[in-house]
Structure formats: C-alpha cells, structure tokens
Specification:
A 7-stranded parallel beta sheet has the order 4-3-2-1-5-6-7, sandwiched between helices. 38% of the residues lie in helices and 20% in strands. With 151 residues, the chain is an alpha/beta fold. The termini are far apart. The chain has helices at 19-34, 47-57, 90-97, 108-119, 141-150, and strands spanning 8-13, 38-41, 62-66, 80-83, 101-104, 124-127, 135-137.
C-alpha cells in the first residue's frame, strides 16, 4: 500500500493581511511544497489563503482547520477542509498538526498559536509578527522555511 503521509508545516497569520504579508505567505507555501511539505492553517482568508495559494501553485497539499461548521468558509485553495466547530480553540489543533510553525503578521489569534507552538517546543519562524523569545526572526520566506525544516 502506498504511504500517503505528508509532513505539514503550520502557516499562521491574520485573516486580513497586507500585500507584503500575502506575498511572503505565497512564497512560503511554494517553498514548502517544493520541499515536499504540506501547509496546515486555519483555512480562511489573508495569510492562510495566500499560503494555500502558493502551495497549490507548486502542486502541494493544503489542509484547513476551520473554526466553524460550514466548509464554505474555506478559502478556494484549501484541498482538505475540516470544519471543527471549535471556534478559536482550533488554533491549538493547527499548531499541533505541524512539525513546525511559520507566523506571518497576525494579531491576538496568531499570538495564541505562537504561545501553543512555543509551549510544545515546535520550531517557530516569524516574518513581521510578534517578537517573542523562541520565535526566530526570519529575514525572508526562504530563511523562515529553511529554519523550520532544519530544526
């Protein structure tokens, strides 16, 4: 039987983002897909949509853990849609599902995900996000992906 397991990296950030953050997220998605990693995220807009779009451009796998119960909330680039019905509690699941975390921008929801990632000892890289001990301040999408995959 073929092994279909694909390692995932959590890409987290705001449901609304700047053009720069969207460009970073798309690049991160493309780079992860090139390395054979899938993207797991909250499945909605902003950074999440951009990361999924980038991964899709390279034939990568995307997983979205939605806060609500309606799979129609997912951005169009999520391939595997999981409506959790857990609200923001799904943030813990997003982080737990990844072998590492890349944070791009974001607000308090992203901060909660960062806290979970750090508590659980996940490698975390950030681009224009919260400056916290344990979060590697990446200089570029390439730097962020390299850091997380090498850890």
């Amino acid at each position: 039987m073929k092994d279909f397991r694909i390692p995932l990296v959590a890409v987290i950030g705001g449901a609304r983002c700047s053009e720069q953050e969207a460009a970073w997220a798309e690049a991160v998605g493309r780079l992860l897909a090139r390395q054979g990693f899938g993207v797991v995220c909250g499945g909605r807009g902003g950074v999440m949509a951009a990361a999924c779009k980038g991964a899709n451009q390279m034939g990568g796998v995307t997983v979205g853990l939605l806060p609500g119960e309606d799979d129609g909330e997912a951005n169009p680039w999520v391939q595997i849609v999981l409506p959790t019905g857990l609200g923001e509690a799904r943030n813990a699941l997003v982080v737990r599902a990844g072998v590492g975390v890349i944070a791009i921008g974001g607000g308090y929801g992203t901060l909660s995900e960062l806290a979970f990632a750090l508590k659980w000892g996940k490698p975390v890289a950030g681009l224009g996000t919260w400056e916290l001990p344990g979060v590697y301040a990446a200089a570029s999408p390439q730097d962020a992906v390299q850091y997380v995959l090498a850890s």
